[in-house]
Amino acid sequence: MQIAVTFRHMESSDAVRSYVEEKLAKVKKYVDEPIDAQVVLSVQKKINHRAEVTMVAKGLTMRSVEEKDNMYAAIDLMVDKIERQLKRYKEKLKRHKGSEGVQQRFEKAVISAASVDEGYESPEIVRSHSFFVKPMSVEEAVMQMDLLNRDFLVFTDDHTEEMNVVYRRKDGNYGLIVPQGR
Predict the structure, then answer these.
(1) CATH number, domain with residue 38
(2) What average pLDDT does the segment 165-172 reach?
(3) Strand partners for 107
C-alpha cells in the first residue's frame, strides 16, 4: 500500500503520519490489489481538524472526509468510514459477480466559454483529462457513485456495451440515462 500524506495549515508530524499509516493498514485486508491512498490533513480556524482520504484499488475509488476537534479522532472516523465502504463493497461483490469486459479510454475536456460565445473557429480547450471506463452493471455503477460521493457517473453497460449515465435525483432516488438506437 502506498500512502501519501499531505499536511495543510499545520506542521508536518511524523507521529501523525505514522498513525495514519498504521490505521490505513487495517483496510488492506479487504482489497487484494495494490492500494494507492492520498491523505490530506488540515486545520481550519485553529480548532477544526479535517482528515480526508482518497483511495484507489483495482479500479475502485473511495473517498472519506471527516472533521473533528482533534486530529486523531478525525483520522479514526475517516478510517472507520473507509472500512465500512469496503466491507459493503466486498459484500455486494460476493452477491453480484461483475463482468470482465474491456475497459474503454475516454477523454474529458473543459472548453473556454469565451471561445464559444465569441465565435472562434475552434473552441479553446482549457483542460483535458483522459480516463478508463470499465464495463459494469447499473448496481455496480450506483455503488461506485456512492463510494465516490458523486452526483452522477458515466459508465459502459456490461451487457449492451453502450455508454450510460446514472445520477442521483433531487428526491434521493437514482436515475439512469440510456442511449436509444437510431
Answers:
(1) 3.30.160.100
(2) 90
(3) 130
